[in-house]
# Entry
Amino acid sequence: MALHNSHRTPGRAQLPTRHATTAARGLGGAAVLGGVVLGSAFVGGAAQAAPTTPAAPAAPSTQTAPAAPTTTAPAAVLDSSEKLRWGSRSGAVSDLQSALNDHGASLAVDGVFGPRTHAAVKSYQSSNGLQVDGVVGPETRGSLNGSAGVSTGGSSAPASSSSSSSSSIVDAARSALGTPYSWGGASLGGMDCSGLVNYAYEAAGIDIPRTSSQIANGGRWISQSEAQPGDIVAWNGHVAIYAGNGQIIDASGSKQRVVERSIWGNPIGFVTYR
# Structure
């Protein structure tokens, strides 16, 4: 009879060998030791997967902030009571050019009222039911500034004012009769044709351009039948004050002085600034 060694190796625990190879590999592949399932939990006798750590909440979605509303810069405001016309040079002309650009023109903002600004003013006046004279007075300025009251033609000056200025212009021109002709002059010491016109208009408080071509192109062209005393008669390179009844006052280069006489030659037209 074989003898079995019943002694255990000192200091070493003897594990039961029963089901050693199947130490319950488990429910779902988890190892079982002493009735404890590693990596699983029993709920109501059934094995459940151990709860996992909940994922961090997703960052709130970001949305593109609504674009700020676009605003259109207001048109330039003409803050001047000065009449602007061909030949004017000032900051007010720069404001005018900016305002015209806001209405579709394409002007250099240089403060000089030249032919392109003159054409742009006339185009604006025509498009907005204004008197087309190329002069920026109260009505054209008001329209550019957004005012509602717009004239559809005719002189903007009251009849009494026009009559008063006519008298003042003609009287001033007559006061210069006999003044010697002096090219570039504009005083009683000597004057040329545009100098005389500037002298007479200054006496009436009306600002006009300096040279004959600027004077002719800066005002509103009218027919002879419309002309009033104090308006201007223009030739190529020459201007004169219309005195009424077919008469003019001009600084004559041929006579070398300021004279009053009948309209001579073939003037290109009549111009008014009122």
